[in-house]
Amino acid sequence: MSRQRYGLLGWPVKHSVSPQMQGAGFDAIGIEASYELIPVPPDDVPAKVRELVDAGFRGWNITVPHKGAMMRLVDQIDPAARHAESVNTVVNREGTLHGYSTDGYGLQEATREAFDIPLAGQSFVFWGTGGACRATSIHFALQGAAALTLVNRTRAKAEALAATLRAVAPACDIHVLEPHETDAIRHAFAAAAVIYQCTSVGLKPEDPAAIPVQLIPEDARLMDMIYHPTRLLAEAADHGCQTADGRAMLLYQGARSFSLWTGKEAPIDAMRQGLNQALDAGG
Ligand code: ATR
């Protein structure tokens, strides 16, 4: 059988560690495949997709800023991806393109692994309501989370997501807060099974803590979607919280893509090792 081709579309993509993670997965179960970094400027995405189909790619991942655009380029779309307006995985099934969003699954599995917490019936706080929150919170609502609180400095953005969440999952209680509403935030934090940090604050080493740590209960569980150590994680751990970075989310969203492409269970241990090696080498 000829070598299978997969890849990652983004702009830029050069810092991605997905090739090492997916490559380790393919190697572990003996699939001959490549996973290529494919930088594409926004205007060129439709042409690039046609090129990938013509070249026989079996599938690809999509990262910023193309997750929304890819939604309009697939033939069939998973409901969670449609509601999230975000496609991070495409499967090419004999020329028909299927779009999925695996970020929510990634966060779900990371939460199970770090804290042994299921989604159904639980309350969660999402701090920051950009693309990362949108993709994952829709999945949480669809999976039966009881309540979601969205905290964002730009209220209108959080309200827009809240409206979608209420339409998608009427039984899920949705609240919107701004960072200055500290009393309500303390209540939401106290009721939350997990607090998720989903802003871009913390990507740069000199960034401050994204969430004022004095608002967080000492026994809280906190996950930062950023997959490097952040000031928030350090401060929250000092405060007594159980903390986790975004590495496992990255692993499990990739594992779900792997399974969608290959129809096989993802070799998690091998993929984790590939991911850790790439990140520890400075990825
Ligand atoms: P996207 O993920 O949609 O591309 P983004 O611009 O990367 O969006 O921002 C992601 C999240 O980080 C947003 O919730 C954003 O808040 P706003 O909606 O108010 O812009 C948040 N964010 C980015 N910088 C921030 C900062 N300095 N302080 C607080 N929140 C910030």
Concise account of the structure shown:
The protein is built from eleven helices and twelve strands. The chain has helices spanning 18-28, 45-54, 67-71, 79-84, 103-115, 131-142, 155-168, 182-191, 231-239, 247-262, 268-280, and strands spanning 4-10, 33-39, 59-62, 76-77, 89-93, 96-100, 123-127, 147-151, 173-177, 194-197, 221-224, 242-244. The two termini are 32 Å apart.
Write up what this structure looks like.
- It is a single chain.
- The longest helix has 16 residues, at about 245-260.
- The model has no long low-confidence stretch (mean pLDDT about 95).
- The protein has a six-stranded mixed sheet with strand order 2-1-3-5-6-4.
- With about 280 residues, it is an alpha/beta fold.
- It is about 40% helix and about 20% strand.
- Helix 1 (about 20-30) packs across helix 10, helix 6 (about 130-140) runs parallel beside helix 7 and helix 10 (about 245-260) crosses helix 11.
- The protein has helices at about 20-30, 45-55, 65-70, 80-85, 105-115, 130-140, 155-170, 180-190, 230-240, 245-260, 270-280, and strands spanning about 5-10, 35-40, 60, 75, 90-95, 95-100, 125, 145-150, 175, 195, 220-225, 240-245.
- Bound molecules: 2'-monophosphoadenosine-5'-diphosphate.
